[in-house]
Write a structure and sequence with these properties.
The chain is 38% helix and 28% strand. The radius of gyration is 43 Å and the shape is rod-shaped.
Length: 224
């Protein structure tokens, strides 16, 4: 009988030890699940980019730090778009109306520095092509002798790119009214030879390589 009591006591002790061991394992598992849940919650929070609309989001993974600077990138892209829009706006054509004529500098990608829709005064006995002052100062004066242009005028070579003719014109600045004109052979070599009419759109550009002006009839008026 005493042996059975000892055996029963030993059995009870073993069961108690097993329960304690199982409880410790269970507690460790619970702690492990809690830590895993916390880690997942933190990761989900860090990965939720929408919760950081205007800040820099940094994801810390182990010993490596990976930073995705969303705000800086968005700001940089916005500034780039604004700058591009500003550049397009500032490089658009500049058109000035002189009487009923129109002189226009070129748009981006348009090689013709000076454009003009011809008026009656460009075709009559005035015998000159009147240029817009600002465009003449920007594109013609820098490549000629200004002092000579203000006196007798300076002769410049002009190449008709439409017909392949090499011609010339005299550029003159008239101090009395500060007008800038091409004259001398304008009527004979250009108006008459090309049969230019009121409303025709002509273009001029400086050819740096050839050191001359190129000329072209860009558009004929509907009356032609």
């Amino acid at each position: 009988m005493e042996q059975r009591r000892c055996g029963s006591s030993s059995t009870t002790s073993d069961e108690r030890l097993r329960r304690m061991s199982n409880e410790r394992v269970s507690k460790k598992r619970k702690r492990g699940h809690k830590e895993t849940n916390k880690t997942n919650n933190v990761s989900s929070s860090l990965l939720d980019i929408s919760s950081y609309p205007n800040t820099i989001v940094c994801l810390h993974l182990s010993l490596n730090v990976v930073c995705t600077c969303l705000a800086d990138t968005q700001i940089a892209e916005k500034q780039k778009r604004v700058q591009q829009e500003t550049n397009v706006s500032t490089t658009n054509s500049t058109c000035d109306t002189v009487g009923t004529s129109s002189d226009c500098s070129t748009n981006v990608g348009d090689p013709w520095m000076i454009k003009k829709v011809l008026t009656k005064s460009d075709l009559d006995d005035n015998c000159r092509l009147l240029l817009n002052r600002d465009l003449a100062m920007k594109w013609v004066v820098p490549v000629v002798d200004k002092a000579k242009a203000e006196n007798d005028g300076v002769e410049v070579e002009v190449f008709d790119v439409d017909t392949g003719f090499r011609l010339s014109l005299t550029f003159k600045i008239r101090p009395s009214n500060d007008s800038h004109v091409f004259n001398n052979t304008w009527i004979t070599d250009f108006v008459d030879r090309r049969n230019l009419k009121k409303g025709d759109d002509i273009g001029l550009k400086w050819n740096e390589e050839k050191k001359r002006f190129d000329f072209s009839v860009l558009h004929r008026s509907d009356d032609n």
